Amino acid sequence: MAEPIARRRFLALAAVPAACRRRKAEGFAGYAFVANREGGAVAVVDLGAFAVVRHIRLEAGPSGLVADRRRRVVYALAPASGTISEIGADDLALRRRLSCPESALAMKLAPGGDRLWVLCGGPHCLAAVPLTAGSAAVRIPLPARPVDFDLSPEASRAAVSLGEAGVAVADLDRGRLLRLLGPGKSFGPILFRRDGRLVLAGNPAERLLTCLEPVEGRTVVHLPLAVAPRHFALKADGGQLFITGEGMDAVVTVYPYRTEVGSTTLAGRSPGFIAASADPDYLFVANPETGDVTVLEIETQRVIAVVAVGREPAYITITPDNEYALVLNRASGDMAVIRIAALSGRRRKFAPLFTMIPVGSAPVSAVVMPV
């Protein structure tokens, strides 16, 4: 009986400050779409009322979401059924299902919105799923099982990490592989620098961040890190890269345009997923083992708050107005809402939670769509 009692006590404490402050704080005019992997559904949360307004059932559990704000649709990837579901942001209804490989690992929307690029584990490939009549299905074979990928800012190239096989650079316009970089290293998370001229690839096995030049095909530098890189987050202007992973209870800050490590800052216990807000420039660090989020002021690298959020926080996203941080708790099946304005000027490090919203079983990803 101890677990249910503790659970009720936690929810009661979280709800008190929300009720007290709701008159002073305005909600966000939009919806949060939450992928519930074990629940096999997407929960839609009205961020003006801070309540779930709909559960959209899918054929299988969604592993990730992508939002197209121009066309006002959300795409949900369900690898087990080999489908991508398109959900309308205005009517909150399932519009169509698109086929994709059942081995899909991740997806990204092309900047033009005409296709989704899907990373596949078997057969090893990068596949384009057409969204409009004018786009074509494309498959680019990969030489090894992929781990992660990113699209260049202009979406002419993709960089795919392949573990010890290196990093593959693909020409998306021509639908072919260009080159293989850095074989022999064990690459994991990967992203392009904001100008597209550099690929930043994490090497968890050797605790390195490798900077690769995708056009000339050369290694620029290997940056030693205090952690095994698992999670990346960029500052809003792209000038700082934040990294967490095993090895130290800290966040490592890297300056990608100077290709150097800036600082290593303690940030809770076993930090995991991270997300950055802009104006104010805060870094939100999920600590799954302790059920809280550590908030750092980016400029000073100072911890300004610690917020208890729930069991196993595993994903964080920021509303477009930078008013709220939305934290998905995988084990407790809820979304914790942190009001960012309430974090500044506090005398005590422990900050209250704005509210808690039950969203479903094992939430893993969320996107926010303005009304």
Describe, in plain words, how this protein is organized in 3D.
The protein is globular, with a radius of gyration of 20 Å. The chain is mostly beta strands and about 375 residues long. The chain is built from one helix and 32 strands. Residues about 1-25 have low confidence and may be disordered. Strands 3-2-1-32 form a four-stranded antiparallel sheet, with no helix packed on it. Strands 4-5-6-7 form a four-stranded antiparallel sheet, with no helix packed on it. It has a four-stranded antiparallel sheet with strand order 8-9-10-11, with no helix packed on it.
Kindly state the percentage of residues in helix.
under 10%
Shape: globular
Task: Give me the count of strands.
Answer: 32
Distance between the termini: 42 Å
Specify the biggest β-sheet.
4 strands, antiparallel
Report mean pLDDT, rounded to a whole number: 92
Gyration radius from CA atoms, angstroms: 20 Å
DSSP summary: helix tally? 1
Q: Structural class, judged by helices and strands?
A: mainly beta
Q: Uncertain regions: pLDDT < 50 for 5+ in a row?
A: 1-23
Strand order of the largest sheet: 3-2-1-32
- β-strand amount: over 45%
List the helices and strands and how they pair.
Layout: H1 2-21, E1 30-36, E2 41-46, E3 51-57, E4 64-68, E5 73-78, E6 83-88, E7 94-99, E8 104-109, E9 115-121, E10 124-130, E11 138-141, E12 148-151, E13 157-161, E14 167-171, E15 176-181, E16 190-192, E17 199-203, E18 208-213, E19 218-224, E20 231-234, E21 241-244, E22 250-255, E23 260-266, E24 274-276, E25 282-287, E26 292-297, E27 302-308, E28 313-318, E29 324-329, E30 334-339, E31 355-358, E32 363-370
Antiparallel strand pairs: 1-2, 1-32, 2-3, 4-5, 5-6, 6-7, 8-9, 9-10, 10-11, 12-13, 13-14, 14-15, 16-17, 17-18, 18-19, 20-21, 21-22, 22-23, 24-25, 25-26, 26-27, 28-29, 29-30, 30-31
